């Protein structure tokens, strides 16, 4: 061992003299030279006139102390608004094709070749309808949101978001880049979890993974918008209904960010205790987005990938929905038994048995929550639905939907709590699976799954008790 050490020292000494006597001075000189070049570009001496730098001018605005956050919120709000509004028409077209046109044709074909009714129900009214609703609800928003998000990324704005949010997340023991993964979660939580790969610290990456579910994914936007329109917009004059509904949805989204900060703070001081790591973020220059590459990245790598996972998980969920609504014991379906059993507890926390069952069934995909709620509510209230009995469906008008929900005993409190529970409940199965694939750990997967649902039940409980104390 001693001989090896001596040999290494002799070799090092020989190489030291080979590089020359001025090697150390050369290194220091190059460092100071580089520092001087950098400072000459970013520091303006007294009396020196600087050239106009468009990048620096934009950065002074988008990362400014007083302008950074307002611009960030406005840009994200515009992206969300375009996504929500722009997705309505194509979503309706896809639903018209897959549900209104193809579904009856497939069902009539199965009946014409005398396939047993229960097979037709399981395959067509269950599996196919679930997949059809997921595609019609998820595809248009993702096809709009992901390209817009990628355009902001290519333009160079998203690193500025991380720069703005770094101090806020660092204060709660998280990483500044978590702002980017949270933003990605607004499109899809599974994609947001995958996006945490940009965080190098394993501890801070886990925090970002566990809290990503507090971002409202596109599968939850339809629930938020519909319930806000019916129950929040319905409490104000018609000319203010749209504004009140939008404000309610934005409030829920902001609450999600707030809860992510609170949970990040708690995790960083308990099971994931540690110091927030500093990260060097080089703000890239602004550049024109590459449209073709953006479309490929956002539509193929993100949209199709996430949509395929959701459809795979939604198909068995559709089978379960049909079975629990159509298998009867003693004149009551399995769904009705569950609803009647859970109702007392659910009503105590401001929800109802229909909502609890809908969210259990809809674990594979949040997109099927509203169709499942409508089907179960109509079933539990014995409303006349004709051939639609026990079949997942969605109504064409908000007023028709409101009538079914009001007939099921829904109140303003139920609507508010459903919006909160839509934000605070377990991740969908696609996200749960993605969390496990990213962490390779059952403990962190379970923690990510149960933290939000426990918070959701507690928040709904406290809101209900306060509501009944001061309102009821």
Give a verbal description of the structure.
This protein is mostly helical. The chain has 19 helices and 2 strands. Helix 8 packs parallel to helix 18 (429-439), helix 9 runs antiparallel to helix 11 (238-268) and helix 17 (412-423) runs antiparallel to helix 19. It is elongated.
Order of helices and strands: HHHHHHHHHHHHEEHHHHHHH
Task: Strand order, main sheet: write it out.
Answer: 1-2
The proportion of residues forming helix, as a percent range, comes to over 70%
Low-pLDDT residue spans: 383-389
**Shape estimate:** elongated
* Assembly level: single chain
Distance between the termini: 83 Å
Key structural traits:
472 residues; mainly alpha; 19 helices
Topology:
Blueprint: H1 2-18, H2 23-42, H3 54-62, H4 68-112, H5 117-155, H6 158-171, H7 178-185, H8 189-195, H9 202-211, H10 221-232, H11 238-268, H12 291-326, E1 328-329, E2 332-333, H13 334-348, H14 353-361, H15 369-380, H16 398-407, H17 412-423, H18 429-439, H19 442-470
Antiparallel strand pairs: 1-2
């Amino acid at each position: 061992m001693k001989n090896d050490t001596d040999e290494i020292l002799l070799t090092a000494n020989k190489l030291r003299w080979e590089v020359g006597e001025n090697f150390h001075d050369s290194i220091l000189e190059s460092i100071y030279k580089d520092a001087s070049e950098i400072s000459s570009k970013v520091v303006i001496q007294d009396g020196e006139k600087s050239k106009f730098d468009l990048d620096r001018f934009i950065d002074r605005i988008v990362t400014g102390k007083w302008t950074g956050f307002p611009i960030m919120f406005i840009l994200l709000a515009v992206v969300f608004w375009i996504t929500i509004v722009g997705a309505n028409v194509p979503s309706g077209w896809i639903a018209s094709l897959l549900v209104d046109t193809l579904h009856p044709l497939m069902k009539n074909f199965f009946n014409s070749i005398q396939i047993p009714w229960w097979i037709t129900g399981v395959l067509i009214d269950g599996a196919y309808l679930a997949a059809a609703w997921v595609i019609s609800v998820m595809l248009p928003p993702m096809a709009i949101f992901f390209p817009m998000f990628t355009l902001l990324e290519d333009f160079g704005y998203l690193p500025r978001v991380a720069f703005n949010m770094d101090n806020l997340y660092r204060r709660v023991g998280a990483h500044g880049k978590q702002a980017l993964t949270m933003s990605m979660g607004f499109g899809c939580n599974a994609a947001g979890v995958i996006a945490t790969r940009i965080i190098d610290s394993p501890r801070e990456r886990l925090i970002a993974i566990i809290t990503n579910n507090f971002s409202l994914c596109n599968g939850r936007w339809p629930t938020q918008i519909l319930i806000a329109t019916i129950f929040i917009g319905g409490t104000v004059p018609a000319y203010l209904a749209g504004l009140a509904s939008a404000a309610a949805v934005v409030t829920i989204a902001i609450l999600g960010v707030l809860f992510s900060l609170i949970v990040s703070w708690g995790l960083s001081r308990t099971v994931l205790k540690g110091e927030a790591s500093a990260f060097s973020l080089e703000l890239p220059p602004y550049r024109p987005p590459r449209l073709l590459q953006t479309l490929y990245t956002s539509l193929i790598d993100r949209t199709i990938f996430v949509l395929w996972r959701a459809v795979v998980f939604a198909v068995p969920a559709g089978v379960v929905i049909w079975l629990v609504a159509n298998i009867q014991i003693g004149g009551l379906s399995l769904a009705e038994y569950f609803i009647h059993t859970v109702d007392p507890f659910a009503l105590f926390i401001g929800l109802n048995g229909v909502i609890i069952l809908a969210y259990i069934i809809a674990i594979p995909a949040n997109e099927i929550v509203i169709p499942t709620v409508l089907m179960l509510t109509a079933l539990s209230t014995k409303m006349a639905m004709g051939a639609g009995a026990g079949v997942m469906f969605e109504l064409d008008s908000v007023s028709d939907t409101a009538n079914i929900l009001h007939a099921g005993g829904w109140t303003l409190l139920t609507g508010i709590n459903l919006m909160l529970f839509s934000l605070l409940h377990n991740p969908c199965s696609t996200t749960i699976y993605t969390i496990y694939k990213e962490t390779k750990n059952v403990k962190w997967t379970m923690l990510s799954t149960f933290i939000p649902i426990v918070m959701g039940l507690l928040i709904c409980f406290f809101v209900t008790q306060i509501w009944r104390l001061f309102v009821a």
